[in-house]
TrEMBL record:
Keywords: ATP-binding, Nucleotide-binding, Transport. SUPFAM superfamilies: P-loop containing nucleoside triphosphate hydrolases. It comes from the Archaea. This is Cobalamin import ATP-binding protein BtuD.
Amino acid sequence: MKLKIKDLTFSYPGHTILDGITVEIEPSEFFGIIGPNGTGKTTLIKCIDTILKPHGGCVMLDGMEVRDLDKRELARKIGYVPQHAPGGFPATVFDTILMGRRPYIGWRVTESDIDKVLETVELLGIEELSLRTFSELSGGERQKVLVARALCQDPEVLLLDEPTSNLDIKHQLEVMKIIQTITKKRGILAIMAIHDLNLASRYADRVAMMHGGKIAAVGTPEDVLTVENIRSVYGVEVAVRNDGGKPYILPIRPVEV
């Protein structure tokens, strides 16, 4: 499943958020979207998932515009993990993850649906949470459950909006590794908006650095995460070290104006 974004634009009155975004993402690719706050990362994710309607341009999945897909077909193709885990779910964690099977469920839940939930619970290592109520979980625990729910959809495209923001270091690494592994084993295309440049560097196959609603640079982490790009886009002086063939970013100070 190849995803192609062409000339995508989105604005609020008097303020352009996305300004002619064009990029292609390949099957089995883990693609990171990075950039300072307010550059349009979340807006881009939401336009891909049709949560927001772009004002121009298109998003194509294997040659078909996503806005032309009906809701059930779209839910089978695209899984979405929001930036903030909502509270107030009265359901158990197991039932919350089971909601990911809704695009496939007819009159009743099948044994195959149950097996898919159990498989995903084990994959995320959240067996001890499965019978707890979702609303009782911590923010980090909720975030892992939402990742599990999206994976349970068996999507061809997985969209993640800052899914590690509420996780401690250990669980950040676990979730990133799981997503990286799944993209390769299942052939899923994963697109993640993320602030942590070192996590993006370590796990993403390619990254797009956004600035002012445009893509300032796109390529491998080695190509994009340079001293010059980070200074220009983030306004920060950094040192870039080599860590196992991947760039490791050491912030030094803000650029003096």
